[in-house]
Amino acid sequence: MLRDITIGQYYPTSSVIHKMDPRTKILFALFFMVMIFLLSEGITFALMGVLTALIVPDYDQAKQEGINDETLTKMMDDNLKTLNTQVAAYEKVARYEIMKSEFEKTPKRSTR
């Protein structure tokens, strides 16, 4: 069925987008165009919270060095500020989360 459709041809379905009022779809399209234009500015990335870093610290090493959770958070805040001064606007990290355990791994030890 989908092989017979020409690109750009209307294909009726019952999705949420198909059921929306056409004016609403136009407004969403305009909103996304404006946001894409504004995303060239780093402040828009930060406001939208686009990029979040997930950090898994080496807790054993931190314990050996006497670093507690509060100190670790302060260190990560400082690292984030330093990182964001060194990267382009689209690469800036808006926020971070410190994970308590490693990410789930595949049998080949790569991250899922």
SSE topology sketch:
Layout: H1 16-19, H2 22-38, H3 42-48, E1 52-55, H4 59-64, H5 69-86, E2 95-98
Parallel strand pairs: 1-2
Give a structural overview.
The radius of gyration is 22 Å and the shape is elongated. It is mostly helical and 112 residues long. The chain has one domain. Helices cover 46% and strands 7% of the residues.
The largest sheet, given as strand count, sense and whether it forms a barrel, is:
2 strands, parallel
The average pLDDT score comes to 80
Distance between the termini: 34 Å
Unreliable stretches covering 5 or more consecutive residues? none
Globular, elongated, flat, extended or rod-shaped: what is the shape?
Answer: elongated
Q: Can you give keywords for this protein?
A:
112 residues; 5 helices; two-stranded parallel ribbon; single chain; elongated; mainly alpha
